[in-house]
TrEMBL record:
Lineage: Eukaryota, Sar, Alveolata, Dinophyceae, Suessiales
Transmembrane segments: 534-557, 569-592, 598-621
Keywords, alphabetical: Membrane, Repeat, Signal, Transmembrane, Transmembrane helix
Top-level taxon of the source organism: Eukaryota
Organism: Symbiodinium necroappetens
Name listed for the protein in its UniProt record: TSPEAR protein
């Protein structure tokens, strides 16, 4: 995400597997992202990724894959002018006692090469800091599988051996994060203790370097509730700390806290309580000279679909005030970085399943159950407990003949045997294929058309956010005009360029006076309305054919079930499919408008045909069959 008009808008979605942490760093003047992948659904022994910013595509592109074991965190630091990375390997599928790794950038091979393997116990975080000109690392060991009472370690770089050597062991309780900071030139460390073996409501600790003992000594103990992160930052020259509280043993809806260093009391005092929902991370960054905080909300006691928040420091109230709420799914951390003078935020968030996907999936599962449901209902319709045995046998035989007549299986085994010849199975197959095609193409069309507008000889497209002029340059319309190329126009005069040119609200991306450019229509170009309409029509034809097929199939079944009454029942049957067809036509026109309305209409339409199939199947199965020879 990048900040435009004092709001963060989405810039890129990076496909990843169970991302646990994002770390931003700059190397050779180019922005990079290190992504820690924890678990792919099958194994913890998977690869984590390093991405590099590419100016040509204005996206992050993968540059290296590194094997990791349940990776939770990357820490980036520079030592002797060379970029280094440390990865916290948490779990390998069988043990928490796994080695974490340190890597160094190699210019010759242009990759990160492993330089050291360090034994860790459920490592959750690395923090790097320099003290007396020497690089240090501290690891948060969260537990060994049997207890959270394990020591975390501080390491010091040793030039002689070219390795990090352990210099101190600090008792911790489910340590999840370290924050390193300096007060009055003295190094400090804050550890976030998640909890002991019985409770999350325990103290987290702050340590201060002591020259006499050459060790970090405890300076302050702060009550926390499932603390998972400390973030250190300075406001007006005063040190602050923010702690992300995850859970208090009963709820994830707990307040996280902001603390300020008090020189007189020589301690950190609480200055603000911020409501959070399973807060997993705080990230501090400065924008336009003002301190900001971004919190990653993970869970609200019922759902992972919770908004994460961005806060801005307010001098008048001496507090952080919310400025933006960003939809996220099981967010675990934010990474803040600046490119080309624009502030960016990267968040690791689970992919939200869109409404049309859930609706369609539910409808498809219903449709798959219909054949067996019909068979069982027909079988039950031919059997009564309070009739003579001979009549029961006769009715069962008639039911069997009926199922054979309709091509319906009475067991899943039977369904497999006749899958190649059953008309019903073929109908369901068509339903699945065309319904999926409809959903995909309609969604694609909403993306293509909903975010473009046809204007004269081309398609009006917004400039890339990185190409947007500054707020000062767009303060007045004449200033905006001065920036325009021959094929561009400003938001305020877009309608004057062509009477039929309408700029959708979704195109707002450059403050009050957005800048657009005319892109010539090309059949393969993103935003090509001709192409998107073809896809839309093809999907509708496919979906309409499925309606016709199912209508024909059920009409045939109805005629066989009720040969003497099917014409009367056909009226009700036709009304159902006529209603569905009218919805299809309505959605067609709504879809041509593009945008969110089309997506919503498609979300409602996708499951209707499978649901109608269920209703029709239940209705047909409940009818008394008229088989030849029956009275």
């Amino acid at each position: 995400m990048l900040c435009r008009s004092h709001r963060f808008v989405e810039l890129q979605e990076i496909p990843a597997v169970a991302v646990s942490h994002l770390t931003a760093f700059s190397m050779n003047g180019i922005q990079h992202l290190a992504v820690a992948n924890q678990f792919d659904g099958r194994s913890y022994n998977i690869e984590s990724k390093i991405y590099e910013w590419n100016d040509a595509s204005s996206t992050f592109l993968e540059m290296q894959s590194i094997p990791t074991k349940g990776a939770i965190d990357w820490e980036a630091f520079s030592m002797e002018g060379t970029q280094h990375l440390a990865v916290a390997n948490h779990f390998d599928g069988s043990s928490y006692n796994v080695d974490s790794k340190v890597y160094r950038w190699d210019d010759a091979s242009r990759i990160f090469l492993e330089i050291q393997s360090i034994p860790t116990a459920g490592a959750y975080d690395w923090a790097a800091f320099s003290m007396d000109g020497i690089q240090h690392l501290v690891v948060a060991n969260s537990g060994n599988g049997s207890s959270r009472h394990v020591d975390s370690k501080v390491y010091k770089w040793d030039d002689a051996s070219s390795t990090f050597l352990e210099m101190q062991s600090i008792p911790t309780k489910g340590a999840h994060d370290w924050a390193a900071f300096s007060i009055d030139g003295i190094q400090h460390l804050a550890v976030a203790n998640l909890g002991d073996d019985s409770s999350h409501n325990i103290d987290s600790k702050i340590y201060k370097w002591n020259d006499a003992s050459s060790a970090f000594l405890e300076m302050q103990s702060i009550p926390t509730k499932g603390a998972v992160c400390w973030e250190a930052f300075s406001i007006n020259g005063t040190q602050h700390l923010a702690v992300a509280n995850l859970h208090d043993d009963s709820s994830y809806k707990v307040d996280s806290k902001v603390y300020q260093w008090h020189h007189v009391a020589y301690t950190f005092l609480e200055t603000q309580s911020i409501p959070t929902e399973g807060a997993f991370d705080f990230t501090a960054f400065s924008m336009e000279g003002t301190q900001h905080l971004a919190v990653a909300n993970h869970f609200d006691d019922s759902s992972h679909n919770v908004d994460s928040k961005v806060y801005k420091w307010d001098d008048a109230s001496s507090t952080f005030l919310e400025i933006q709420s960003i939809p996220t799914n099981a967010a675990r951390n934010w990474a803040a970085f600046s490119m080309d003078g624009i502030e960016h935020l990267a968040v690791n968030s689970g992919k939200d399943v869109r409404s049309w996907s859930l609706a369609a999936l539910g409808g498809y599962l219903v449709a798959l159950s219909v054949p067996i449901f019909m068979a069982k209902m027909c079988q039950q319709a031919g059997s009564y407990s309070e009739v003579p045995l001979k009549k029961v046998q006769t009715q069962r035989q008639q039911a069997k003949q009926l199922m054979e007549l309709l091509g319906l299986p009475d067991t899943f085994s039977g369904a497999r045997q006749i899958i190649k010849q059953s008309k019903y199975v073929l109908a369901v197959k068509m339903l699945l294929e065309s319904g999926m095609l409809y959903a995909m193409e309609a969604h694609q069309r909403a993306i293509l058309v909903g975010f473009s507008a046809q204007c004269g000889a081309g398609t009006l497209m917004p400039l890339k956010s990185s190409e947007c002029p500054s707020m000062a340059e767009t303060a007045e319309l004449p200033a905006c005009h001065a920036l325009l190329a021959a094929n561009a126009l400003c938001e305020a005069d877009a309608a004057d360029d062509d009477g039929g040119c309408v700029v959708p609200k979704e195109l707002d991306n450059c403050a009050d006076f957005d800048v657009y450019k005319i892109v010539p229509l090309a059949c393969g170009a993103i935003g090509c309305q001709a192409l998107s309409h073809i896809l839309w029509i093809a999907a509708l034809v496919s979906f309409g054919a499925t309606i016709a097929w199912n209508a024909g199939f059920y009409a045939s079944s109805l005629r066989k079930l009720q040969p003497d009454k099917w014409q009367r029942l056909w009226i009700s049957f036709t009304a159902l499919f006529a209603f569905l067809a009218s919805l299809l036509v309505t959605t067609t026109f709504v879809g041509f408008a593009g945008g969110s309305a089309a997506v919503l209409a498609m979300a409602l339409l996708c499951p209707l045909l499978p649901v109608c199939a269920w209703v029709m199947a239940a209705w047909l199965a409940s009818l008394k069959a008229k088989v030849k020879g029956s009275k």
